[in-house]
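ingest -> validate -> predict -> emit
validate: passed (alphabet ok, no gaps, 289 aa)
predict: started
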Amino acid sequence: MAPSDPITEVDTVALAVRDAVTAAQFFTEALDFALDPPTSPTRLRVRLGDESLVLAERPPGRPAPSDTRSNDLWFQHVAVVVSDMDAAYERLRATGVDHVSPVPQRLPDWNPASGGIRAFYFRGPDGHPLELISYPPGKGDKRWQSTGRTFLGIDHTAMVVSCTDASLRFYGRGLGLRVTGGSENWGPEQERLSGVDGARVRITSLRGAHGPGVELLKYLAPAIGRPRPSDSGPDDLWHVETLVTTCDLDRVVRRLVSTVPGIDVSRLDGAGVVVDDPDGHCVRISEAG
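emit:
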């Protein structure tokens, strides 16, 4: 169980890209993000509503394996909330994006946690998995019921995990995020959404006081996919960093060491620490200014 006093929050997610300017153009033109004033030509931040993404140029960058599947352990997507799924999908389809889902999927009403949610998986120009998601009344943050524009913001980043309990020790007990919900999704809609035959997924949602959430995706069927390549590095285009901020960096590091056996907290980066979760997903922790 996560502690009752969360001291971290997700600030943003950073994607490794071949060319930051080209990547930013996709997000601004296809998904209505706005470009923040640049502080570096190779590290750009694009913003949608209250949330943002960092596009970190890391040429030449190895692309993700062409046969990457949504249950492989390097999978991590960002979920963009839309008010009108049909309009958003047609906009994306016109750009020729690479589909994972054949078309948007409506999750069935028999599932009380997810019924009525519509979602669509696709890949950005650098191969990153992304999701469009729309929430029916009564589900999701109340902000996501707005109809003022099509693309609203980022609800969460979701990652495949091999063991929910181990990941909860990292993100919950260690980082201090709170468990806010969960569901178990299966059936033809989930299979088409993820592009994985026979998909049955346990989803656990966590959040800090502010910012996007983190979703843990544990595939109960089929078996968890392939592990992260052993030679993965920050220059690879499948590299994703979840950037979190904390009011007490030393306390978070002590909690991670005490709750996650064998964790490496020795990698310092400026005022922060870079750590890998139990499945190799990268998290960069910095102290709030």
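The chain has one domain: 8-287.
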